[in-house]
């Protein structure tokens, strides 16, 4: 393809979608499977809701996952920076 985009067909919550993206097919399938899984889990827990409401709840759940992972990453990066600073300080004192 001249624009560098792949096109792949995925199924999410019983509907087929043609997704275009620059990522490889397996990655796009993995993302679609995750969205499908979250939507099905919500549908199982909530009972009859419209697919658009389930999609919104799934988006909120996935955004929550992402936010928590970003926060965890920031905390780990801060901890690593503190530890590195301690090691460098100790080395400077020993010189």
Q: What does this protein structure show overall?
A:
A hairpin with a 2-residue loop joins strand 1 (6-12) and strand 2. The N and C termini lie far apart (59 Å). This protein has two helices and two strands, in the order ββαα. The chain has one domain (6-94). The protein has a two-stranded antiparallel ribbon. It has 95 residues and is an alpha+beta fold.
Principal-axis shape equals elongated
* Largest sheet properties: 2 strands, antiparallel
- Please identify the structural class as seen in this structure: alpha+beta
**Number of helices, where a helix is a run of at least 4 consecutive DSSP H or I residues:** 2
- Beta strands, count: 2
Poorly predicted segments:
none
Number of domains: 1
Précis, in short:
The chain is of the alpha+beta class and 95 residues long. The protein has helices at residues 25-46, 51-94; strands spanning 6-12, 15-21. The protein has 2 helices and 2 strands; from the N terminus they run ββαα.
Could you outline the blueprint of secondary structure elements for this entry?
Elements: E1 6-12, E2 15-21, H1 25-46, H2 51-94
Antiparallel strand pairs: 1-2
Helix pairs in contact: 1-2
Quickly list its features.
69% helix; alpha+beta; elongated; 95 residues
